[in-house]
Amino acid sequence: MTTVSDPSQRILELAAALDFRAAAPLTESLLAMRGTALTIDASRVERIGGQCLQVLLSAQQTWSADDTALSFTNLTPGFVEGLRLLGFSEADFTKEEMPE
Amino acid sequence: MDAMAAVKQTFFQECEEQLAELETGLLAMERGEAESDTVNAVFRAVHSIKGGAGAFSLEGLVQFAHVFETTLDHVRNGALEPTADVMAVMLRAADLLADLVAAARDGHTVDSGRSEVLVGELTALSPGGAEAEAEEEDDMSDFSFTPVTVAFDFSDAPVDIGRSYTITFKPRPELYAKGNETVLVLRELERLGELEINCDASGLPSLAALDPEGAYLEWTIKLTTEKGEDAIREVFEFVEWDSSLTIQAADAGSSDAEPGADSTEDAFAALLRSIQGDEAAQPATTAEIIPLPSAEEREAVAEVEAQPTKAAAARNSESGANANAGAPQTIRADLERVDRLIDLVGELVINQAMLSQRVMEAGHVPGSAVALGLDELEHLTREIQDCVMAIRAQAVKSVFQRIPRLVREVASMTGKQVRLITDGEGTEVDKTVIDRLNDPLTHMIRNAIDHGLEKPEVRIAAGKPAEGVVRLSAMHRSGRIVIEVADDGAGINRSRVKAIAVEKGLIAADAVLSDEEIDNLIFLPGFSTASEVSNISGRGVGMDVVKRSIQGLGGRLSITSRPGKGSTFTMSLPLTLAVLDGMVVTVADQTLVVPLTAIIETLQPKAADVHGLGGGSRVIAIRDAFTPLIDVGRELGFRNTATDPLAGVAILVETEGGRRSALLVDTIQGQRQVVIKSLESNYRHVPGIAAATILGDGRVALIIDVDTVIANSQSDATILEPVLAAAG
Asked: Which residues are recorded with the post-translational modification Phosphohistidine (chain B) (predicted)?
């Protein structure tokens, strides 16, 4: 996971394997960026599991409560397929509101 | 080790256990004990391996386990009779499964041809044959919903477009911690039919309050499937203990169908669960699961709360995958931690011995309060040591369970019929011994079948059953473990053995040997009775190597043989390699320990018995036989000049191949149990020294490697042999 500094917009690049090992570092990275407008780049994601999904959903919720922009970009087929199996669609992650 | 590697390691450990269960169960089935518990245990073993392998994307393993499991399922549901032919294929499939697991673990591959052949054989066993299986395979490789023909189609039943289930699934953190994954479960579920997945994230905290390793989401899944509830439960098999799970069946989607007809499978499934105690604590629920032949919509709810409830316990014991309710609880512990504990207890024993000695030196008499307190401490220390040693103790079952396969393989290669009987599998011995038991035992079993048992026609001609018996047993005897490999074959052909020994120059042509001595010739280096090197026993390893490796463990190997009745190889091993019974001796002011297992007797040399042979070599006459007398002080470099044998003590020891030598030491201090400390890991390897120990006075004492000392002394004095032969 790497971050790219940008004065107006920060970008967080997700790891390829968002499995149970990735959840803790992902949370840390996100918490470090709290309060800033953030774009999450999913271009490397090959698969996503339940715990990383939780982290991303919680981030959406948190950014929304903070009234800060959070968006997802470059959703890969692997990412979308994982989301589908976990009950979400691509649309849930390309809009900024928290999915119901 | 990272988390994933650790999880994977656990998976492979569990595979070992499952493979053992599988083997045990299949062998029981082969004996005709195909009770539902046994068949279920066998099925679960393969299913568990498949499930774990799927989580690690071990495709080859998953594919084969799937075919194997499908065939086992036919046995489980009574569609396939477990005849001898069927069981032979199953056993070979179990062997291949074990190889596939080992290959996945060690990162090598298994001959795909073997796998294909067995897949073909397993498939051919299935009712409906290859076609039904082929469709099943297609179904596996396709994640999207494809309606498939059920193998056991009730041809007269109306066409059913599927049944609807509502599943709620809420993982707990443990589910993820054990390496399981919701996505994989849902993907597996999707193979059963069409899914409508909804995730409830209302319990999700804000990021600051979120535990990344927690579990907050709950899924509600609507599944339309032609499969029964059992198939759904199987998907959740590995995770239901770490989640809250409900499966609710509704009659939706089958309104066109005649109500009672399509529910037959479910009704049977529910009845089966009920019989097996699945719903033992919920009889009312069981009744509800069976859809009644009524047109009105009914709902049946079967809930499995992933809590250790009575019902859960009943299911657990039925499944056989987890410990039975009455079985002792176990924990997995890192071997290094246990070893560290053993080391520390060893230190404690040494420390306690040192303290005792100091107290005695300080003038406290035995019987004084201090001495009595120390006695109690010693007692307690010994007890702790025994308890700690018991942690490392393992049943020999882990070694024995590999033997049936070996027997099958060797029997098929030699064209012999063999029945293996094992006894005393629960006998416990230290893990260090277990780990080094496999090779000698493997060779002994090979030897028993290849050289011991006769071919079926020879046996019949001798009035014996065509099937030979190899009996493998383990028992505790006098603080040691005794393992016997007995066959009911022809016994040792003594005249042939003697002729070969003469031919190979191992004994003199006119040597007069007792039966026992002739039998023991097969342990001599360079001896091989097979006139042609066979593929089985003759792998460049003779019985001498087997004997040496057993002696390396502080053990002894002996043989008894009766012509026409068979032979019995008996190995006796110490229960642990962490402590050793030794004789403490003094050589050139050094304290040394001679392992007691090597010692036959001790004696005071007399002037008339000791003869010099030149070059510093000497022999001693012990009961009409000349035995090399080795000056341990000189051999180990403690002194340069030869010591006076009359002033010392000779310890008669037995070497590999049964040869005897006498070790000359200055004095014998006594006999005691010592804690073994590795010299290699604490210092470096020293030729002639096996290990070290710390004595009560705090001094380090070296433990003599008897075999090496003798081997070295013989290479120093090669002139000895011919002279001895002439003298003998």
From this structure: 47
| Whether this model's pTM surpasses 0.90 | no
Residue spans of alpha helices (H) in B402-560: 403-414, 431-435, 438-447, 456-461, 494-503, 515-520, 543-552
Cβ contact B557:B567 at 8 Å: no
Cβ separation B182–A88 shorter than 8 A:
no
pLDDT > 60? residue B232: yes
Q: What is the mean pLDDT of the segment spanning B459-488?
A: 90
C-alpha distance from residue B611 to each of A21, B162, B212, B425, B627 (Å): 74, 96, 81, 50, 10
More confident: B499 or B3: B499
Residue B198 has its nearest CB partner, among A62, A82, A87, at A87
Contacts of B217 in chain A (CB under 8 A): 50, 53-54, 57, 86
Residues of chain A contacting B197 with CB distance shorter than 8 Å: 84-87
Radius of gyration of chain B (CA): 33
Quick check: A76 pLDDT over 70?
Answer: yes
Q: Least CB-CB distance to A61: which of B176, B206, B212?
A: B206
Tokens of B610: 């000791």
- Rounded to whole angstroms, the Cα distance separating A88 from B1 reads 34
Residues B145-186: tens digit of each pLDDT: 333 333 333 334 444 457 889 999 999 988 888 778 898 899
* Domains in chain A with CATH codes: 3-94 (3.30.750.24)
Token pair for A61: 């919720």
